[in-house]
């Protein structure tokens, strides 16, 4: 039996892509954003001695704040010994976003500190 090629599969992929795109677009036309407040998040960065790394983190947070001005605002806090703090702090006391080294991420996920 010869395999039949139809155009259903590309159209199904297109429909799925359009619906996902539609779900990710903010509802600007409804005025939902006008009524909302700015959500503040806390970003923990490693406060080590790497001046270049710290400058990069500051730049990334500044660009984030510029991009999402009026909706989100990130407060950057440099934490000394961030790996130790991440391992010992309770999830409720941690920053909303944490910058960290790759090798420690699996431990933090396994221990339930990040999802």
Molecular structure report:
The chain is an alpha/beta fold. It has one domain. Helix content is 47%, strand content 16%. It has helices at residues 8-24, 32-35, 51-67, 82-88, 102-110; strands spanning 39-46, 72-79, 97-98. It has a three-stranded parallel beta sheet. Strand 1 (39-46), helix 3 and strand 2 (72-79) form a beta-alpha-beta unit. The longest helix has 17 residues, at 8-24. The protein starts with 7 loop residues before the first helix and ends in a 5-residue tail after the last helix.
Key terms for this structure?
3-stranded parallel β-sheet; 115 residues; alpha/beta
Number of strands: 3
**What structural class do the secondary elements suggest?**
alpha/beta
Proportion of strand residues: 15-25%
Report, as a whole number of angstroms, the end-to-end distance: 48 Å
Q: What is the 3D shape?
A: globular
The major sheet is characterized as:
3 strands, parallel
Helix content: 40-55%
Structurally, the number of domains stands at 1
Outline:
This protein is α/β, with parallel strands linked by helices and 115 residues long.
Topology:
Layout: H1 8-24, H2 32-35, E1 39-46, H3 51-67, E2 72-79, H4 82-88, E3 97-98, H5 102-110
């Amino acid at each position: 039996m010869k395999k039949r090629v139809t155009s259903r599969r590309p159209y199904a992929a297109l429909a799925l892509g359009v619906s996902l795109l539609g779900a990710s677009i903010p509802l600007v036309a409804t005025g939902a954003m006008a009524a909302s407040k700015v959500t503040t998040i806390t970003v923990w960065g490693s406060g080590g001695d790497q001046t270049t790394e710290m400058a990069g983190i500051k730049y990334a947070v500044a660009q984030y704040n510029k991009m999402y001005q009026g909706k989100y605002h990130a407060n950057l806090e440099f934490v000394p010994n961030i790996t130790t703090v991440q391992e010992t702090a309770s999830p409720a006391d941690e920053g909303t976003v944490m910058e960290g080294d790759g090798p420690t991420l699996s431990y933090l996920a396994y221990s339930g500190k990040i999802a």
